[in-house]
User: What shape does this take?
Amino acid sequence: MNFDELFGHLGQHTVDGLAKGSIYALVALGYTLVYGVLKLINFAHSEVFMIGTFAVLGVWNLLGADGTQGVAMTLLLLAAGLLGGALASGATAVAVERVAYRRLRQLNAPPLIFLITAIGISMVLSETFGIWQGRLVVGMPTLIKQKVAFTIFGTEVTNTQLITIVAALVMMFALDQFINRTRYGRGVRAVAQNPDAAALMGVNKDRVIMLIFLLGGLLAGAAALLYSVRYGNTRFNVGFLLGLKAFTAAVLGGIGNLRGALLGGLLLGVVEVYAATLTQSNWEDVAAFVVLVVVLLFRPTGLLGESLGRARA
Amino acid sequence: MTETPNEGRLSGVSNFFAGVGNRWRGLPKWQRGIGFLAFVAFLYYLPLLGVPGLTWLRTDSIEGGNNWAGVLFTCAVYVLIALGLNVVIGLAGLLDLGYVGFFAIGAYAVAIFGSTQSPVVKSLQDKFDLAPEWAITWAICIPIAIALAMISGVILGWPTLRLRGDYLAIVTLGFGEIIRIVIRNSTNWSGGPAGIASIPGPQGAPSADNHIFGLIDAKPWYWLALSIVLLVVFLVRRLENSRVGRSWLAVREDEDAAAVMGVNPFKFKMWAFAIGAALGGLSGFLFASRQGFIEPNQFNANLSILFVAMVVVGGSGNMAGAALGAVLLAYLPERFRDFSEYRFLVFGLALVLVMLLRPQGLLPSKRRARELKDRQEEVAVGA
Assistant: This one.
């Protein structure tokens, strides 16, 4: 247990954890949205994220990113990557809904059948990329060179950490506003509260469900861009662990609760970085699972309680 | 009542299986007995398979194919796993995505206590001044493996079985990974990432003197595994038709109703979990004994999902179905080596297609098929 390292650089590790947690939070939103409306764990969401990273890589390769471009070009690459990743992930999420879940809903299948189908889809998607892109880690061009952006209370915050955290917060805020203030958001909340009553009131249930899958996919694509910028590599099974942790984050904050996903994501990121620091990364992954089990045991509704329907009272 | 959309698709398969099943059940008891004995005899004869016209089944009939008896052994181990997981998924209706954890515990039990190279055995030798060849006998490792797996099943089940079904699935998935990571990180007792070698078989540590359970000839291993499978089939069948089996059925179909009628859901779920874990441990034990060497990466989460696929594709709740699924998923990639790169892709596809088109599995249990149909009809009536 390396307590000296942890407490000596507590601020540093916290910022690192927040940056990591921001990515979890964005992916967690996808789980939470779908769960809030359908009461379904969309196991294939991790692969939606994975496809996002490959789309980002594809866009960057297409535009000839090599890490030596100027500021304008970097911004363009980031924007193009965001667009490409979000579109690919969003399209994947919607396609999964159309191909698999809609039919199962029509059949009124029990929840476990949904889950097993989702596992199957997840396997198909990740294996497709494993066969197509190879099973090794695929490197990406380093778009933004890490350097210290500013120092606060003796804690150095690097530019990529800053971008990750700020971007995640902005998107989270946008989603929150969308769900709480727009017509579509009202539809989502209505279906989450009571699908049948919402349908009677003229809400198109299938369209709302498609919308939440699309939103979750877009956010996963954005998370894929941030991940690519921060880690600079991807792999066909990159989604598995990350998805599991994002799900943990969603449960931790209260699945079905948008603000809970943010809180859970950030918290989990920090916990993980602390655990990694204490144990030389050996037990980093175990920490997340332990958190998951403990939360489910003592507070299965998560920290903020689970409710998309009551997102705004 | 409208016709459910599921009918019509794959109905040829259904009709075929239903027809065979009905005809089988219609036979007099002694004829069924003879049929069953003949089938068992055929299973024992399989590794020697040389009937003209059937030799193409052998995996060594293709270029670079694996040893036929070895493949059969793998199939038998997978069938054992499927039988154990079938108790959890099919009978009790709990989705366990961390079954590989129990498999790993069973495998590591024989490795840690039975191998002369394991850190635990070495430290015991030092402590009690034992000969360097000393290790715990293979036969004694069997109960150790089963007990350890069962205990870990109870430890996992105690907090998690109160959770909703889909949460349980995710937590068990995490459990499988935790086991693997713990084994990988604990160099001081599990050998860490390097694994443990010279795991004993029934005749002791692997050496050239082992004439029956050696490394080369896999036939005795297959016969051993097959005998265990048959024993387990018998035991689980007895269990299915017992009070415990009926309680599982009740809990699976309607937990609240079962609780009202005096069946304690938690208790019986725990039993299913423990029995499933024990069988997982036993299969891991067999696997490790035959392999002679194991390492943590052999027990990754993909394997758990493969196990679930075996049970679900074959037909959860029905032992014959689960066994069929296991044989298919273990045998086909070996026989058709060209596709082995695609095997997980195909398994995933099979999983999705079966769930969408035939959620009760290829060889369903009658009862499960009816449960699913009931739900569909509820919608049809409501719509």
Chain A has twelve helices and four strands.
